[in-house]
Specification:
Chain lengths: 473, 397
Amino acid sequence: MLFSSATFLFVFLPIVFLLYFVPVFRDDKKKEITKKNLVLCASSLVFYAWGEPVYIVLMLISIFFNYTIGCDLDKNFADPKTKKRILVFAVIFNLGVLGFFKYYGFVIENINHLFGLSLTHANLALPVGISFYTFQALSYVIDVYRGDVKVQKNLLPFALYITMFPQLIAGPIVQYSDIEAQLKQRTISIRKFAGGVLFFIRGLGKKVLFANFIGAIYTDITSGGVSSLPAVTSWIGIFCYTMQIYFDFSGYSDMAIGLGKMFGFDFIQNFDYPYTASSITDFWRRWHISLSSWFRDYVYIPLGGNRKGTARTIFNICVVWSLTGLWHGAAWNFVAWGAFYGILLILEKFVFKSLLEKIPMPVRHVLTMLIVMIGWVFFSSNSLGEAGSYLLSMTGFGKGGFADAQSRYYLSTSLFPMLVTGLSAFGVFKHFPKPKDKTQRLTVQVVGYLVIFIFCIIYLVSETYNPFLYFRF
Amino acid sequence: MKENNFKKSKITKRVEHRKKVTAIGLSLSCAFISIIVLVAFLILLIPDKQMSEKENRVLAQKPVLTLSSITSGKFMKDFESYLTDQFPLRDRIISFKTFVDRSVGKKEENGVYIGKNGFLFEEQTEYDKDNVEKITSAVVNFAKENKKLKKAFLLSPNSSYVLGDLMPKGYEPESQKQQLERIKELVEPSGISWVDCVKVFDAQEDKTGLFYRTDHHWTTKAAYLAFKELAGTFGISLKNAKFKLYSVSDSFQGTLASSSGVGSSTDEIQICIAQKPAVSYVVSYESSNKKTATLFDKDKLNQKNQYEVFLGGNYDKVIISTSADTDDTLLLFKDSYANCMIPMLTPFFAKIVVIDPRYFSDSLDGIMKEYNFTHVLFLYNLNTFLADTSLVDALES
């Protein structure tokens, strides 16, 4: 189920609210929280099964497996050797399952390519959210191994941690240590709920009003092939994609955070105006924060981070960024995208550090943005070759030349949406004058958000407009 | 004492502020929950509709719950379509959305370009050289095999050419004039006369009457202008002929209005009837074993696509036998642009065999032998001509 679907908004959510908030055990706080956890866990399973009626089995296996591993690690905590063996087994199993579903076809195709074979492989559909929940499970197992968190002997809170529907499909990747206490006890209040509503509506608006609208322009531009695009059109296209992916992804994170708040949870922030970054290092502190933190805590630092000399640091960065690239998808253009950032980060750290500090801030912002947009070319393309021809088009030396009539059309029809999304992503609206009085400001905000919500519903319904034109001819 | 009071008032202020914030939070929470619950109830309570007039299709109904429909995920997909299809005020919501889209500068909706003065334009079909050569060489072969027939090719440009000034600024598709020129060069040498619609339409001072605003067809007026040019080509004298236009509808909202969801304007439909020479005729639809004495189906004026008033829509093969005082017989290969012109042709042919290759699966050879044709006409609009290769199959059958 998607948050931006009628089923979720008008059927699933009202029912879950009803079951979750109507108290059953008024006097027994402990029982009431268990009931709440049960409702949330059960509805999360329904939520997942709604989109993946078969693969839910896989998620259940992951839950039982990692729960058992946690208990086993705890039992053998005093025995480092056994403990280590259990951990290695758990990591191999988790990554094995993820690898099988995500990279099996990719690996076979590459083997075929390398050795001129023609091995066939089943086209497995990727189970939704598997990259996210596998990483969450791993964070728990590794933390228990390290002794950073206590083992969860109760299956229900653990299952809830893995399945929780707000962040199940697209993150943020919550680390167990961040949420451990909240699984047992959390504040549920009207203020928090309302804050959650604001977050949720903001996210929904980002997704439905901004990302979908601007994304349609990108799709339109690239639909006729990218090699013949004139430079102007290709820059408009990649700008639109840059906006689409930010509003889509951060919108989904905002909705997750908002829903979490409604149910009393606090998730970490996943995006912090990434397009206002002044360097690539800064960008990755602001983009998909939960993923970068995960790789930092469970790959980069265990490998020695930057404490083992320059050569080792460079190696570590390379490992982390190849993995980051691969995590996003099983294709070479994602690996290239990861490598692109790995190399830039290394350069920034060891070569251009002093130079960068001398560049005036506005120039740094523009440079960072340009690099990020070029990065998205790799990310958005279907293959490395396509990325190459898109980049060529952007230089103006491609078949399409510099500009054509089509470019003017796109410029005139897309200017307004590009301006609005751009200013919003660059954080300009943040600095707009607001009413001084706090309650007044809040009232304005609340009314504005409700209007946005209604607009979201209108756009959601309109997207399904599907005239049947048998009389087309 | 004073300081104490000050502190107190500060605390009460803060408490009051907190209360206010909570009140705002409560109203927001209530509003949010009310909206989703209200919509849920409306979907539940409003009786389900079967058809959407606007979208011209059957709406999704409550899906049936079975084990297999759940494991395959079909139930979930159908349920979502059910909710959105039966959404309260769906049609109005969609109109409102296209209105908002236009206000923020969007000039295209579902493949339809929104032009000035309420004119909607369909996207131009791309000129695929190989495709065109394939079709034209079939036409040329046919011409070579039937040297004795009088042959004409009438290919109408679309509104995106004729009314190009009204298109959204900056949208400049490849010129249809040049495309038509290229096609002309391919077919003319084989002895087929080219009926130059571009010349006829370009000569018109007010071109807005030549195309519907909400539909992709030309109007009866445009068809009449093209017909006059065609008559010249075929050597038909219109000296004593008299045609009259009648208005039959002013509530027409065509395919472009449907595709885009933009429903702000309506069109008038006119029909053209030959008063002199007056002929009677029998129209027989062979595939459905139906015979009528009219070229118009006025029942179609009560349905969504009123353009079907002409000839009742598109059929594989329609045979029109007339009382015209002539031995001339016409074989017509056509798309729907021809439908409104056929009534103008009837006084000048004893028989017209109308073939729409898109639906035609019979053998042309048989038809050629059965009727002794004197004339053959290819009548298409450019967009359909470029997109459709069924003419090749029909000519080679």
